[in-house]
Amino acid sequence: MLTDRQRLILNAVIDDYIRSAEPIGSRSISKRDDVTFSPATIRNEMSDLEEMGYLEQPHTSAGRVPSIKGYRYYVDNLMSQDFAKGQEAEMLKQFFADRLQHSEKLIQQAASILSQLTNYTSIVLGPDQHHTSLKHLQLVPINEQHAVIIMVTSTGKVESRNVAIPPDFSIAEMERCIQIFNQRLAGVPLLHLRSKLYSEVGAELSKYVDRFEELLNVMEKALDVEGEPQQVITTGMTHMLDQPEFKDVNKVREILALFDHQENFKKMVPSPGSGIQVRIGTENDNEAFKNCSLITANFTVDGESIGTIGILGPTRMDYSRVIGLLDQLSSELISVNLRLNKPEEK
């Protein structure tokens, strides 16, 4: 258990180190307006904090830097959230006001803005197909032999597939079939669509359409999403090179190599959950990220996950600001979703 004085000094060390990236000494802490202790007292407390594992002394420097344990204590107990304000908040609000588009694309573009605002790397992990379902299908005829099937998912993603209309099938029959598909398949997870075609739709379709098996074959190909991997999109990787901690090119090379193997990276991202999750240094399940912190937020619309945004930076990350921006982003996503789904006034 830390004393109030130790908590104040640890908080001051971390705040100053986040800004300067240089080891912090007792004299610089004593000059802060919120600290009234002498340099000698601060020095003794910093020594105790080092013994307890909250601070570290790099090489022969007289100053100290936070340890992973120190950062964790700071995030869990000391940090006051720095809510997005002023120009940053207005930038996010304007972004959402101007772009009433589907949510999955929106979150990718918002992550790019976060990378610009924070000067860190942003990562978007698309929704897992286990948690993404079909919203509805639409048929757009091109001619008597060809049509486009438009598939809209629960995340707002829109995909179109060109299909060949089986011989002797009319457009009216195809449209009737699409109605049946929507009745039977709406809300079904994407990974189960193909199997549900036969177990849920086949018997019903046979009541209305001769040679319905041919139509099921066409739809099976159109709804084939099982081979599509969960996307990982990164923005601002070069920002890593702007941080003093990563002047060593070998450290950056290890991180870049990890992103080349996306399946390994996906395992590092916490499972979707409520709120914002913070992994600091060695808490990340990969040696390449031992000098990094990863802050992730899973975003949902109407209970459906539309993706995860991660902000990757050095352990000397401005946690308060990043968490504040992610909170603001979450609020704006909810707001734009309410506007999109608000019933039209008659």
What topology does this entry show?
Blueprint: H1 4-20, H2 26-30, H3 39-51, E1 55-56, E2 65-66, H4 68-78, H5 86-98, H6 103-118, E3 121-125, E4 134-141, E5 146-153, E6 158-164, H7 171-185, H8 193-206, H9 212-222, E7 232-235, H10 249-260, H11 262-268, E8 276-280, E9 292-301, E10 304-314, H12 319-341
Antiparallel strand pairs: 1-2, 3-7, 3-10, 4-5, 5-6, 8-9, 9-10
What would your notes on this structure say?
The chain starts with a helix and ends in a 5-residue tail after the last helix. The longest helix is centred in the last third of the chain and has 23 residues. The protein is of the alpha+beta class. It has 12 helices and 10 strands.
Q: What structural category characterises the helix and strand content?
A: alpha+beta
Strand content: 15-25%
N/C terminus separation:
61 Å
> Strand arrangement, largest sheet?
7-3-10-9-8
Number of separate helices: 12
Shape: elongated
How many extended strands?
Answer: 10
Describe the structure using short key phrases.
346 residues; alpha+beta; five-stranded antiparallel β-sheet; three-stranded antiparallel β-sheet; 12 helices; 10 strands
TL;DR?
With about 350 residues, this protein is α+β, with helices and mostly antiparallel strands. The mean pLDDT is about 80. Strand 1 and strand 2 form a beta hairpin.
